[in-house]
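Hello support,

Our group uses your service weekly, and this is the first time we've seen a run hang past the timeout. The protein is Serine/threonine-protein phosphatase 2A activator. I'm not sure whether the cause is the sequence or the server load. Input pasted verbatim:
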Amino acid sequence: MTFQQPRKFILIKDQLEWFQTSETHKKIISYIETLNEAVVGVKLADPCEESEGVKALLSVLDKVEQICKETPPVNNAASRFGNPAFRSFYDKVHEVSPQLHETLPNMPKESVLEVSVYFNESWGNRARIDYGSGMELNFLCWMYCLERLGVVKPEDHRALVIRVFWRYLNVMRTLQSTYWLEPAGSHGVWGLDDYHFLPFLWGAAQLRGHKYIRPKSIHDPEVVEEYSKHYIYFACIAFINSIKTASLRWHSPMLDDISAVKTWDKVNSGMIKMYLAEVLGKLPVIQHFLFGSLLPYEGPAPPESIDLHQDDPHHGHAHTMGGGGQREVGWGDCCGIPVPSAFAAASADQKDKFKAPGAGLSGPGIRPVPFD
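Update from on-call engineer: The timeout came from a worker crash unrelated to the input. Re-ran successfully.
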């Protein structure tokens, strides 16, 4: 196999439609579903064999967190948006990334350039100082590539969720709270939370078939406190409650709606459908997706007039209407209208004042939740 540095290809609707029928798309969904099934009924603290590959990945994540601790935020008290020190953190991670990958067991040296790109992009956007489901998708792709290369094995699937991904989620919470990362995109209050999707998907899988806990239990503070130690879903609810005031109905209406679903099986299957629609099916996310040899692109070419190699984070994708229906992405839908970090609002003792536009409202633009 000839490895190559991953790059962007998708810009227009026709390319997105190709992607949704591609082998790369199928591989990503299959991997999500495989990891999903590996953690059904599994608690975070359950015994789980950690292979040398899994231990190596955890060590890498420890190093990332250490870099964060060594790169404190700059004094930016006048702003509730992303802290510029994140860029220094990002550059440091980028600098040590090749060495970190070369320490992984069975890692082909010639693959480091390709695989490390997914790793580097897992922590947020350097220019915008934001984070969202697209960056989380990069981490998923990183784990997928490492399994393809034999760094981790199929028998590691359970550990990849309840050890590696769980560790990644906690490192990301540290980054989000340290650098006040802004939520990427413009879903705002209608998302699952400001930043993540996969913890809710795999977290629902952990709870499938539970004898006592039901989806509506997320409204019981005592249940949330107790079970946040065991299940990723409840840990995410506890996190949201810790930085936002009022009820989920107001600041997280989609989670509130999902809590009315009768079983975790339906929540889990609905999460997979939602991921297909809201992450892998959205041009604003997939136009930033990176294709290489392990996750190849073999679809229609992007317009020749656009250079996708430029570093400008707004270059290489559409922000205006026109082009015969091909360029349908607005600026806010793509790179997001800047939204202050909820951590910034909370730290300023203004949690009661921070609500995303449209909080608690309904209207024709709100899509139904696919859980029935």
